[in-house]
Amino acid sequence: MKLRDQLPELEGATAWLNGERTKEELVGVKPTLVHFWSISCHLCKEAMPEVNEFRDKYKEDLNVIAVHMPRSEDDLDLVQIKSVAAEHDITQPIFVDSEATLTDKFDNQYVPAYYVFDKDGQLRHFQAGGGGMKMLEKRVNRVLDEMKKE
Predict the structure, then answer these.
(1) Tens digit of pLDDT for each residue in 120-134?
(2) To 5 degrees, how large is the angle CA 62–CA 119–CA 27?
C-alpha cells in the first residue's frame, strides 16, 4: 500500500475474534489503526503490551483492528491463535487471515506492522518492526489533530 491509498474491504477472514468489523463501520467515523501480528512472532509478543496500552489510551478516538498473519503452517491453528490472543490481552477485533486475503490487499510482508488510516479511510502512516511506538503515537495524534480542525 502507498500513502493515501484507501482502506480495503475487511473481507476474506477465515475467522473473526472479539467481534467482526466492516469498512463501512470504520470509515467516516474516526481514524483506524490496523495492526498485523503473528503467534510465531517474538517481536509481536514483546510489542503487545505497548500496543494494548496505546489501544486503551485512544479507545475513544481510534478504531483498532488486529490482523493475524500466519508465517508458517504452525500459525494456522485457530485454538492457538485464540490462546495467544487471550494470553497477550488482545481484546480488539482480530481478523484471522489464514488465507492471506487481507495481507495481499495490504501488500504487507511484515509483523508487527502498523497502518494508520484517517477517518476518511486514507492511509496516512505505515511502519513495521517491534519498536517505534512514539513515532506511531505522533502520527496518530497528527491525524486526530487534523480531524479536530475540520
Answers:
(1) 999 999 999 877 788
(2) 95
Q: Which CATH class is domain 15-149?
A: alpha beta
C-alpha cell at 129: 518492526
Gap between the Cα atoms of 126 and 35, Å rounded: 10
Domain boundaries along the sequence of the chain: 15-149
Record the pTM: 0.95
Across 34-54, b (16+ Cβ under 10 Å) vs e yields bbbbbbebebbbebbebbbeb
At 3-33, the pLDDT tens digits run: 999 999 999 999 999 999 999 999 998 999 9
Q: Alpha-carbon distance 147 to 150, whole Å?
A: 5
Helix (H, G, I), strand (E, B) or coil at 23: helix
